[in-house]
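This section describes the prediction task in plain terms. A model, or a person checking by hand, is given the sequence of a single protein chain and must write out its three-dimensional structure as a string of tokens. No templates, partner chains or ligands are provided. The sample shown here is typical of the held-out split.
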Amino acid sequence: MKSLIHIVSCMTLSLLCCNCSSEPDFTLKEGDLLFQDVDCGPFCNAIEAVTQGFDDYNFSHVGLVMKDAQGHLKVMEAVSAGVVLTPIDTFLSRSSDVHNAPKVLVGRVKPDFKDLIPGAIDFIQSKMTAAYDPYFDINNNQYYCSELIHLAFKHANGDMPIFKEYPMTFIAPDTQQTFAIWETYFNDLNYSIPEGQPGLNPGGMSRSPFIDMVYKYGEPTRSTP
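The expected answer:
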């Protein structure tokens, strides 16, 4: 069971054109969002099958760049250990494309909304001891990756969201049956599958009109029709 929780915690459960750069002199800024295509097998496959990311890219995890107590940039992410700060190199090395480049795109809050970043980070700082949310319940004071970032910016924006919640689905679009991996996962938790409950995923967040995609480390996989 722990292995299932660990794997699924590394992922979760619009712009018309990309201004992404791949220039080597790109510098991350505090508040940047790192959208990641994680290679985690059936869990990630199930997520990517029912979500649409920016430019049809597959994203199964997202983290936020922020400073640690020493002022060094790290990646905040909600994983099985809870809300943690991960070294940027460690985050980027999780999955690579055919050229051995990280399958990560960088989203940046548009200039008109950059003033929300300090408040969002303050909110996250107050949640650094919070537990991971294996149930994908947006109201239980536990957090999965996209949930925490969504709630942080919502808090900073006077309770107005910049990322949209959608009804979650765990059903395969080709068979109209619940993915077997999710049945096993929620059975092990002794918890009902939260089909149709509000939630977020990295793919949906990557399509928010409040962010620009500004950099591409490598080439994530793309959804196919």
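For orientation: The two ends are 33 Å apart (CA to CA).
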